[in-house]
Write a structure and sequence with these properties.
By secondary structure, the chain is mainly alpha-helical. It has two domains: about 35 residues; about 80 residues, no CATH class.
């Protein structure tokens, strides 16, 4: 390697080091982008309850759809009105419907940013 090649390599190395230092300094000066999960408090009990009920209802809905796909007779598929009528007829049905209604109410408040 000739002397001029060594000098140009040394100069290129020096420029690269300066660029790396400048990049590192600018990265330290700039605050990191705030991710919502880092600065938001964990959800309260009411929100966790609502999300749990929502998850359970999604599972029930998914199983109902799977049963509807596998069942050849459409007369066995219940609509929402029939499900509510059957729940109200049982001793604990009104309680179940009240829990579901409360969960959806809390969940709606969460997404309206009325509660956290």
């Amino acid at each position: 390697m000739s002397n001029s090649q060594k000098k140009s390599l040394k100069a290129a190395s020096k420029i690269a080091k300066k660029a790396a230092k400048a990049h590192q300094k600018s990265a330290q000066d700039t605050p990191p982008a705030a991710s919502p999960s880092k600065h938001q408090p964990p959800p309260g009990r009411a929100v966790r309850f609502a999300e749990t009920v929502r998850g359970i209802l999604f599972l029930v809905f998914a199983v109902s759809l799977a049963i509807a796909l596998l069942t050849p007779d459409l007369g066995q598929i219940l609509g929402l009105g029939e499900i509510i009528n059957r729940l109200i007829g049982h001793w604990g049905g009104k309680i179940v419907l009240a829990i579901i209604a409360a969960a959806f109410f809390i969940y709606g408040l969460k997404y309206l940013h009325a509660i956290k």
